[in-house]
Amino acid sequence: xxxxxxIFDKVSVLSIDYYDRQPxxxxxxxxxxxxxxxxxxxAGLHVINAAYRLRNCTxxxxxxxxxxxxxxxxxxxxxxxxCRIWSHIGTTQISAGPRATIEVGENTFINTGTIITSxxxxxxxxxxxxxxxxxxxxxxxxxxxxxxxKSGKDNIIIGDxxxxxxxxxxxxxxxxxxxxxxxxxxxVTKDVPAYTLVGGVPAxxxxxxxxxxxxxx
Length: 217
What we know:
Layout: H1 3-19, H2 26-53, E1 58-59, E2 64-67, E3 70-73, E4 76-79, E5 84-87, E6 93-96, E7 101-104, E8 109-110, E9 115-118, E10 121-124, E11 129-130, E12 135-137, E13 156-158, E14 163-164, E15 169-170, E16 175-176, E17 181-182, E18 187-188, E19 196-199, E20 204-208
Parallel strand pairs: 1-4, 2-5, 3-6, 4-7, 5-8, 6-9, 7-10, 8-11, 9-12, 10-13, 11-14, 12-15, 13-16, 14-17, 15-18, 17-19
Antiparallel strand pairs: 19-20
């Protein structure tokens, strides 16, 4: 697709958003061009910001970061192509301890104020939507009794096309299947099957979701 065709398509979409029709005057057309230029410049700045904020991480192409993301990369943090991370209203924090790994799949969106902390392994799939103030922790970070965790037991695995709503908490040892939805404010302590909606404290099954309703970015 040519650059001219891409610009024309974007102008057409923006015109529908603003006017519910195509521009009918030069003034309207120039306004749409201004909106498009502003959005393009903003996206470019977010790409530059991502390069700086994620400089100690492994980062894919066209990753964008909005705001002052806090990163503690003593372990490995891997961010896939096209991911968007917002940290402009509440500070988003991603922390991987020594020998820990955090992986975020392609085109996943992480909203403001989210905290992702790993001492072992947290894997987030492709095209996921992580709402604001979500918490993921694969460790208790203190022991009631002295013990050693079994390898792999406490990992958090989140499949593709998963939606985790506002202020949900994902605790250690949880696997969330593809296409699942976690309701706002839920505390997930057990595995969530694919294409199901769960909610509550602790989170419980609410209903099955049709595979046609998988989240698209």
